[in-house]
Specification:
730 residues; alpha/beta; Rossmann fold; Immunoglobulin-like; 6-stranded mixed β-sheet; 28 strands; 22% strand; binds beta-D-glucopyranose
């Protein structure tokens, strides 16, 4: 160990004081000022070569275009950035993603625990579930030797066909932002840097590398950017990943308004901005706010290596930026604890981690229909048919860079192939958690028979001979590809028609990455949305079917009744050559994403945002609303049914001084025993009552009378009240 290294470590330790903590507590190891001072000590000692070394990295895969050789300390994963060991700065080993440590197309065989999809976690409306999920995957990443987990996707679901919605957290900026922030906290408490992504307005996959998202400043601030803002201020992510697409004509990774102005100036974000893989188009991106070039072999050239070194040599603006880039990276590594608690390959308790995934799915399953209390299944059901969805094998998962495979590998992989940039990722994987086995294990003495659903007539025949039919249907989605429409693929709608026609006691279990249409809904006895259920999905689904778990999930995304209800019924760019750029006009709905659009257009959707049934019933009463600088609502909530259950009581804005306007202001997730009543208080984040004033560059609340309501969903407002707000800036 050389002397300089020791001196640096000593100085750093003195500056950091005695504030270091072990894993599991807050990731904040030192106060911001000592973090910055400690980072400065290191940055000052970097040689010119080391300065650029930290700001560009490769894709850590042994193949692909221009694949550089992998250094010995690199780990197979998404990325690798060489470190400066003499100053205690480790190489950055980066892995995807938000649902667990990724599998990278079969290159890793060590297995990881798969959380259910982001939409399942969002359906819990539970920041503790998001935190625990983050902590679990963060710890697995750390124990596999990774110091950066590319987790934290928070792009809003503007289109229910988006192939990556399953990685994200739905259509509302408050819900998505708070859950993302909690997940980031969980990850970073393990001393692994999280990466809130993809900044910004990366809301469809069609043309993802070239499409231009057009959106006004106020609309963006009140929707997509607000989700990022809330995630960043609650989660304090060490890094942000800028997106592939253009925003208002400029690539997101060289977008001065987004990176320098909004993120770094207005939000005072102190961490680093890394590019998405292959998203850098110029050296000047450094001046526009990009701090690190990731997966650089995918770019047309490595901009942040020699070209940046040369620019820093001759141009003070680049020199200053390079020092700032290094500072931002190192300060995040210090703050998250990567320098003091380096990742170490250690054994993983997969059994314990599977329970975390199962709990998330328990709470994330949404009961959409339950005619005549068909669920939970009673002991009187002595002949149970289980049909379709490969339920004998496992549960489906979403594809792309976030794909996780459990220890031992997937239960089944179906290679689809096809065209497009991500064609090599087109393999459907099933997690080895069989719903059929889980149902059999809970069915007592009942006979359980399985039909694969290949032939609707055979499936209907089995359903007819059974007391109940549990019918699994799947819709696979993956990064890089949007769905062309909202239908179930592979003729599964006909299967549901046939089975529900044969037996009205049919429970349809959806394993989908997005909302789907349900032309057969009237015929179905019950419907569960299980999303992509994760490592222990089969057990979680069976627990809800048999009433071991009383469902409490609420939709974080609207299920429209038809494509014609969408702001853009035709998917922008669909069918265009992959290289042809196009605009997507998000000013159509502006900030009114999802339920706000349907409310504004007075459209009756299939299932509204916030909707979800329970095996018990809840009733709010005695609403009192207080105004002033923000709205505070308090009310009683009673479990009027006969089982313990969890309600998610939602507070919506309904009217403003300038007219009707719907918006989620907050919620309370609360467990109640039968007959129990509790008083609930919800205070709104004042930004949700404000508008972004573009001219004054600030939030502004118009003074006057506001209407609010307590709802069981965005379309089921049960109690209403008013509050007078004082004009001003939140
Ligand atoms: C994805 C990112 C991912 C990166 C590294 C990109 O294609 O958009 O979400 O983190 O690859 O695998």
């Amino acid at each position: 160990m050389n002397t300089l290294y020791l001196v640096t470590r000593l100085a750093a330790t003195l500056l950091a004081g005695a504030t270091m903590i072990g894993s599991g507590a807050s990731a904040q190891t030192t106060t911001p000022s000592t973090v910055d001072a400690r980072a400065d000590v290191i940055v000052r000692q970097l040689t010119p070569e080391e300065r650029v070394r930290l700001v560009h990295g490769i894709m850590a895969l042994p193949f692909g275009p221009k694949a550089p050789p992998l250094p010995p300390e690199a780990i197979l994963g998404a990325g690798y950035i060489a470190g400066v060991p003499r100053l205690g700065v480790p190489a950055l080993t980066e892995t995807d993603a938000g649902l667990g440590v990724a599998y990278i197309m079969g290159l890793r065989h060590d297995g990881a625990t798969a959380l259910p999809s982001g939409l399942a976690t969002a359906s819990t409306w539970d920041t503790d579930i998001a935190y625990q999920g983050g902590a679990m995957i963060g710890q697995e990443a750390w124990r596999k030797g990774f110091d950066v987990l590319l987790a934290g996707g928070v792009d809003l679901a503007r289109d229910p066909r988006n192939g990556r919605n399953f990685e994200y957290l739905g259509e509302d900026p408050l819900l998505a932002g708070l859950l993302d922030g909690a997940a980031v906290q969980g990850i970073q408490a393990q001393h692994v840097v999280a990466t809130v992504k993809h900044y910004a307005v990366n809301d469809q996959e069609t043309g993802r590398q070239i499409m231009n998202a057009v959106i006004g400043d106020a609309a963006a601030r009140e929707s997509d950017l607000l989700a990022f803002q809330i995630a960043i201020e609650t989660g304090h992510p060490g890094s942000i990943m800028c997106a592939y697409n253009r925003v208002n004509g400029v690539y997101a990774c060289e977008n001065d308004p987004l990176l320098n102005k909004v993120l770094k100036q207005d939000w005072k974000y102190p961490g680093w901005v890394m590019s998405d893989w292959g998203a850098v188009h110029s050296l000047s991106a450094a001046l526009k706010g990009l701090d690190q070039e990731s997966g650089s072999q995918l770019d047309s050239q490595v901009f942040f290596d020699k070209p940046l070194a040369a620019a820093a040599e001759r141009d003070p603006a680049y020199r200053a930026r390079l020092a700032d880039m290094d500072h931002r990276i190192i300060r995040s590594l210090i703050e998250v604890g990567v320098l003091d608690h380096p990742a170490a390959k250690t054994p993983i308790d997969f059994a314990a981690d599977a329970k975390v995934a199962e709990r998330a799915e328990d709470e994330g399953i949404v009961l959409l229909k339950n005619r005549g209390d068909l669920l939970p299944l009673l002991a009187s059901a002595t002949r149970i048919a289980v049909i379709g969805g490969h339920a004998d094998v496992g549960v489906i998962s979403g594809g792309g860079s976030s794909q996780v495979a459990p220890p031992g590998g997937p239960a089944m992989t179906v290679h689809i192939g096809g065209e497009g940039q991500m064609a090599m990722m087109r393999s459907i994987m099933y997690m080895p958690s069989s719903p059929l086995q889980a149902i059999k294990a809970r069915a007592g003495g009942a006979e359980v028979h399985f039909d694969d659903g290949m032939y609707p007539s055979a499936a209907a025949d089995l359903a007819r001979r059974s007391d109940v039919a549990i019918l699994f249907v799947t819709k696979w989605q993956l990064e890089g590809y949007d769905a062309p429409d909202l239908s179930l693929p592979d003729g599964q709608d006909q299967l549901v028609e046939a089975v529900t026609g044969a037996n009205p006691h049919t429970i349809v279990v959806l394993e989908t990455g997005n909302p789907v249409l349900m032309p057969w809904l009237d015929q179905a006895g019950a419907v569960l949305e299980a999303w992509y259920p994760g490592s222990r999905g089969g057990d979680a689904i069976a627990d809800v079917l048999f009433g071991v778990v009383n469902p409490s999930g609420r939709l974080p995304i609207t299920f429209p009744a038809s494509l014609s209800q969408l702001p853009r019924p035709n998917l922008p760019g669909w069918g265009l050559p992959e290289t042809q750029a196009f605009d997507v006009d998000y000013n159509t709905e502006g900030a009114n994403v999802g339920y706000r659009w349907y409310a504004e257009k007075v459209l009756k959707t299939l299932f509204p945002f916030g909707f979800g049934l329970s095996f018990t019933h809840f009733s709010p009463s005695d609403l009192k609303v207080r105004g002033g600088a923000t709205v505070t609502a308090s009310f009683n909530l009673t479990n009027t049914g006969s089982r313990p259950g969890v309600d998610v009581a939602q507070l919506y804005l309904t009217d403003t001084p300038s007219g009707a306007h719907e918006r989620l202001l907050g919620w309370s997730r609360i467990k109640l025993d039968p007959g129990e009543t509790r008083r609930v208080t919800i205070t709104a984040d004042p930004r949700l009552l404000a508008n972004w004033d573009v001219a004054a560059h600030t939030w502004r609340i118009a003074g006057g009378r506001y209407g609010v309501a307590i709802g069981a969903s965005a379309a089921d407002l049960q109690l209403s009240g008013t509050a007078d707000l004082t004009p001003g800036l939140p």
